[in-house]
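Each field is set out as follows.
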Amino acid sequence: PPPDPPATIAVAELTAEELQGAPVYDADNTWIGEVSELVLTPEGQVSEAVIDVGGFLGIGAKPVALDMESVTIAREAGSDDLRLTVAMTKAELEAMPEHAG
């Protein structure tokens, strides 16, 4: 039988340090970027993740902001490393407006 999918994690259970730099994959399990920054509500809750899409080693990447409700967070199998998955393709993310910060 196929391995169990990793258990998803609620963003409220994580720290900003854990999310920062986490790899982001699309629905086809292709790496599309990483979390460069987090947008917080006035109450200090994470509302959006800014993902640097594309580029190479952070050069030429385009930052786009995604609502945390559209991001699935899980741990890599057998480790504490986080892995974020979005239901959008890299092309769809690259077509989004750039996050101004």
Q: What stands out?
A: The mean pLDDT is 86. The first strand starts at residue 23 and ends at 25. The CA atoms of residues 71 and 86 lie 5 Å apart.
